[in-house]
Specification:
Elements lengths: L1 H22 L5 H8 L4 H8 L3 H12 L5 E3 L9 E9 L11 E6 L7 E6 L3 E7 L2 E6 L2 E6 L5 E3 L19 E6 L9 E3 L4 E10 L4 E9 L4 E2 L3 E6 L14 E3 L2 E8 L2 E8 L4 E6 L12 E4 L8 E6 L2 E5 L13 E5 H10 L12 E7 L4 E6 L2 E6 L4 E6 L6 E9 L2 H4 L3 H4 L1
Parallel strand pairs: 14-18
Antiparallel strand pairs: 1-10, 2-3, 2-27, 3-4, 5-6, 6-7, 7-8, 9-11, 11-12, 12-13, 12-14, 15-16, 16-17, 17-18, 19-20, 20-21, 21-22, 23-24, 24-25, 25-26
Length: 420
């Protein structure tokens, strides 16, 4: 009897607990997805990682045309890096070059990297952002989505003023803006096929130092009015080469440029249409042998300039107090760290003809630097300062342009099942 009474008492204690669990308030998954779609990339990923049902609802939300209104969209989410595009050519059986093609070094798989032909059409990659790639195909500008295979051909490019000679056309910088960036919206990012293409040319002469701009809007389907903005603090009477590859951070576009008086970082404040320049130290390498690249180690932070010199990569930073560039760079990584990564991975080193590192591209969404060396391609995470991936293949073509490829977050969502 005593034992039976104890069981009854135990049941009486557990029943209210079960009742409370059954009546605990919870939100439907559809509502949770709606909330996550208005949060930020990291929260959306964590939400999708909770369970299979949640991942399915997130996928369904995107497939039915739901829009992601994500705050802090510049936060680094490393899996957004999907590889990089190579414009190259391979020898045929007779030792001759076939026509140039576009190849994709694909890092989509968690534990493998492969290379395959992206398109057999002869094309030149000019810019990429959020899964979209700007290509020049047979003289035309074309924006392509590698994930879906869709593309949009732009109307003929407008001509800059006569000050831009035909020989200077290759010095034009092309910038691709996607989604909310088209509205200069620093708070929310709308992922979609809305984009802008900006053509930028820096006109430097004895009496003129101006940034010239032409902008295409997919929303209107036309090129806008020509814009010319004076570049404050930029000195010199002659431009040495064109603008480097643009870095977009903090609502501004940044370019590396050189005049006959020194090297500068040019900054265009998009909202205010104000252009300013800060001069790099006199000891900054300008011999043409050092590869240079703009990057940012912290999402939304101040830009740094990466340079490669033999077996080391250096970072030139600005002083937080004065915003002047520091006189001496810091070492980011050395060749030995790359070789240790290969050895740790248990892979044999490819044959080498010497030593040398080149910085090719920086992924603003993933925070990753693409490095090329005699031992293949490496991806360096600037936050952790560690190599996160390596790729080498005997079939890597003779390379022309290299450009990174980061997926649109909406295109990444359907892969949650395999990547989380």
């Amino acid at each position: 009897m005593a034992g039976g009474g104890g069981n009854a008492a135990a049941r009486s204690r557990t029943q209210p607990a079960r009742g409370r669990q059954q009546t605990t308030a919870s939100l439907p998954l559809d509502v949770l997805v709606d909330i996550a779609a208005r949060s930020d990339p990291a929260t959306l990923v964590r939400c999708a990682a909770t369970c299979v049902d949640m991942r399915c609802r997130v996928k369904e939300y995107i497939s039915l045309g739901g829009r992601l209104r994500l705050r802090h969209g510049d936060r680094f989410v490393l899996p957004l890096l999907r590889g990089h595009l190579i414009r190259g050519h391979q020898y045929d059986d007779r030792g001759r070059y076939p026509k140039e093609e576009l190849f994709l070094v694909d890092t989509a798989a968690a534990d493998d990297t492969t290379m395959h032909r992206a398109t057999a059409i002869s094309s030149v990659p000019l810019a990429s952002r959020d899964g979209l790639v700007l290509l020049r195909v047979d003289g035309e500008l074309r924006v392509c989505d590698q994930a879906t295979g869709s593309s949009h051909t732009l109307p003929p490019e407008p001509a800059f003023p006569v000050r831009v000679s035909s020989g200077a056309a290759r010095e034009i910088s092309y910038v691709l803006l996607v989604g909310g960036e088209c509205d200069n919206d620093d708070v929310a990012i709308a992922v979609g096929w809305r984009f802008q293409v900006v053509m930028a040319y820096l006109d430097v002469s004895q009496h003129r130092r101006c940034l010239q701009l032409q902008t295409f809007s997919s929303e209107h389907g036309t090129w806008g009015h020509y814009t010319e903005i004076r570049a404050h603090n930029l000195q010199g009477s002659r431009l040495e080469g064109g603008l480097g590859r643009a870095l977009i951070v903090g609502g501004a576009m940044h370019w590396l440029c050189e005049t006959n008086t020194g090297a500068y970082v040019l900054k265009l404040h998009v909202k205010t249409a104000h252009v300013s320049a800060t001069k790099l130290p006199e000891c900054f390498p300008r011999d043409g042998l050092h590869h240079q690249l703009l990057a940012t180690p912290v999402a939304g932070g101040s830009p740094i300039v990466l340079t490669s010199d033999g077996d080391k990569i250096f970072a030139w930073a600005q002083s937080k107090q004065t915003t002047k560039w520091q006189q001496r760079p810091q070492v980011v990584i050395e060749t030995e760290a790359l070789l240790r990564f290969i050895d740790t991975a248990g892979r044999s080193r490819p044959p080498s003809r010497g030593r040398g590192l080149n910085v090719l591209w920086f992924g603003e969404r993933s925070g990753t630097v693409l490095i090329n060396s005699y031992w293949g391609f490496f991806w360096l995470d600037l936050q952790s300062m560690k190599i996160v991936r390596w790729f080498w293949d005997r079939e890597i073509p003779s390379m022309g342009e290299n450009i990174g490829y980061e997926m649109n977050l909406a295109d990444w969502v359907p892969t949650f099942g395999s990547t989380l």
